[in-house]
Amino acid sequence: MNDIKPSQGLFTLLYFAAASSFTKRQSESFPAPVKATELFNLLEEQYPGIKTSVLDSCAFTVNREYVDIAPCLPVLEKGTDAILNDLIIQAGDEVAIIPPVSSG
Questions:
Q1: How far apart are CA 18 and CA 76, in angstroms?
Q2: What stretch of H or E contains 98?
């Protein structure tokens, strides 16, 4: 798979499986920096219904590392759990939305 390089000041968002079907895209670029929790609001504005239809059950990666982000929860008060909800996505980052996959 070729690495997708965003333009300067942007990050790349990759969509897989149901996320790709919902958005009808495999990837797109967004302005950076942005809080991860704000990204979910941007996606909901652009793709109404994506939070409940897709994001609530997905895994997320930033630069190919899994991160625990709660898209529909408010940012928690400062503490260890709040750090992940305060994640800032930077220019050049690669974020992926990975829905659950079942095998049969």
A1: 28
A2: strand 94-98
Backbone angles phi, psi at 8, to 5 degrees: -60, 135
Does 6 have pLDDT greater than 70? no
Nearest partner of 63 among 91, 37, 24, 101, judged by Cα = 91
Where does the chain have alpha helices with state H?
18-23, 36-46, 50-53, 82-85
CA distance 59 to 70: 10
Give residue for tokens 């190919």: 64
Calpha distance 45→7 (Å, rounded): 22
Structural contact between residues 58 and 19, judged by C-beta atoms closer than 8 angstroms: yes
Q: Is the peptide bond before 33 cis (omega within 30 degrees of 0)?
A: yes
Is the pLDDT confidence value at 89 over 90? yes
